[in-house]
Specification:
52% of the residues lie in helices and 11% in strands. By secondary structure, the protein is mainly alpha-helical. A 3-stranded antiparallel beta sheet has the order 1-2-3, with no helix packed on it. The chain has a two-stranded antiparallel sheet with strand order 4-5. The protein is elongated, with a radius of gyration of 28 Å.
């Protein structure tokens, strides 16, 4: 197809180097053979990237299909705990009151999502936001939750009525796989939202 304008040869901008070049063909997008080679290489790289992304997607879908309820329960707890840490970012340990952060850590965490009533003692509250708060690793692990001080921290933060509600009886809860998938989806999204707001606040400060 001709690419002339009023009898003159039209010019186009090369997709690789950006230089303008004259051409009679509307399908030509590069100015030279070296740029044509680079264009082919770039297109091949993009195609390979798409193929790798598709392979990863298929692999994720296969792994998801093989997951059982226990796997989804673990994923849900992980997503919920991450949200708790983000919700309580910058707050002191609920038990000992010491400041907490994970600055400088390559692995692990100084900030735990500590259950006041443990999952073993009251699984009905494993995903309850009042029952789970940011806690330092020492109180959560070394001191088995530091429960006496945890209770004091809960009363100060939420009030005695809510603490007594946590300590009261609760109806049995049974989560289906679909329930757990929704918990994962919701808390991952909420954790991302809170982190985004926090980082935006830092940039604005």
């Amino acid at each position: 197809m001709s690419n002339r304008v009023k009898g003159k040869m039209a010019t186009k901008k090369c997709r690789i180097c950006g230089d303008k070049f004259p051409t009679q063909h509307s399908t030509r997008v590069v100015c030279s053979i070296p740029c044509a080679i680079r264009l082919v290489e770039r297109n091949n790289a993009k195609k390979e990237k798409r193929n790798q992304a598709e392979k990863r997607k298929v692999l994720r879908e296969k792994k998801q299909a093989l997951k059982g309820r226990r796997d989804w329960l673990a994923d849900a707890q992980k997503a919920f705990n991450a949200w708790v840490r983000e919700r309580d970012y910058g707050k002191p340990c609920i038990s000992c009151g010491k400041p907490m952060n994970n600055d400088g850590l390559l692995t692990g965490s100084r900030v735990n999502a500590g259950h006041y009533r443990s999952v073993g003692a009251c699984r009905e509250l494993r995903f309850n936001p009042l029952n789970v708060n940011a806690q330092c690793a020492q109180c959560n692990k070394d001191l088995s939750g530091n429960v006496v001080e945890y209770r004091k921290g809960l009363i100060e933060r939420y009030g005695i009525e809510r603490v007594e509600w946590i300590e009261g009886p609760h109806p049995m809860t049974s989560y289906t796989i679909d329930d757990l998938k929704e918990i994962v989806r919701y808390y991952r999204a909420e954790a991302r939202r809170l982190k985004r707001l926090r980082e935006q606040g830092k940039r604005a400060a």
